[in-house]
Amino acid sequence: MSTLEKKQLKEYLERPYNIILKAIHDEAGQYYAARVLEFDGCIATGETKEEAYAAVSEVLEGFIEDMLEDGDPIPEPIGDDQFSGNLRIRMPKSLHRNLSQAAKLEGVSLNQYLIHKLSK
After folding, report:
1. Does residue 44 sit in helix, strand or coil?
2. 19-68 confidence digits (pLDDT tens)
3. What structural domains and CATH numbers belong to the chain?
4. Average pLDDT of the chain to the nearest whole number
5. How far is it, in rounded angstroms, from Cα 60 to Cα 43?
6. What is the pLDDT of residue 106?
7. Which of 19, 61, 57 is nearest to 37 (CA)?
8. Which of 39-43, 73-77, 83-87 has the lowest mean pLDDT?
9. What does the alpha-carbon distance between residue 79 and residue 16 come to, in Å, rounded to a whole number?
């Protein structure tokens, strides 16, 4: 790995990628799994949250290193600034009618009604 690639690797590793930790209970026992949301297949496990986090950080470093060497594009971290809060969906007219009627019965706007239902 060249000096430039090492510098780029360090810069990428400082970015706020989203690491998701999850407790797992299965036939193998109890452990933690960690994955990096922006990188498909960037997964590791550990007996504790800290071990899983450290392990997935090492895997992430390997992913980025390989991508730099191969000249592949490296994903940007997913942050809140990438979401506008707007969502446009299409639905059957009958569903639209039913939802609008339900919102009217509740005395709220269709938007408020949908947000309430989706947040449950």
Report:
1. strand
2. 999 999 999 899 999 999 999 999 999 999 999 999 999 999 999 999 99
3. 3-70 (3.30.160.250), 84-118 (no CATH)
4. 92
5. 8
6. 93
7. 19
8. 83-87
9. 8
Interstrand relation of 19-26 and 43-46 (parallel, antiparallel or unpaired): unpaired
| Sign of CA pseudo-dihedral 8, 14, 17, 19 | positive
Q: Classify residue 83 by its DSSP letter.
A: -
CA end-to-end span of the chain: 49
Best CA proximity match to 99, nearest among 89, 109, 86, 88: 109
Element containing residue 34 per DSSP (H, E): strand 29-36
Give, in degrees to the nearest 5, the angle at Cα 113 between 110 and 114: 85
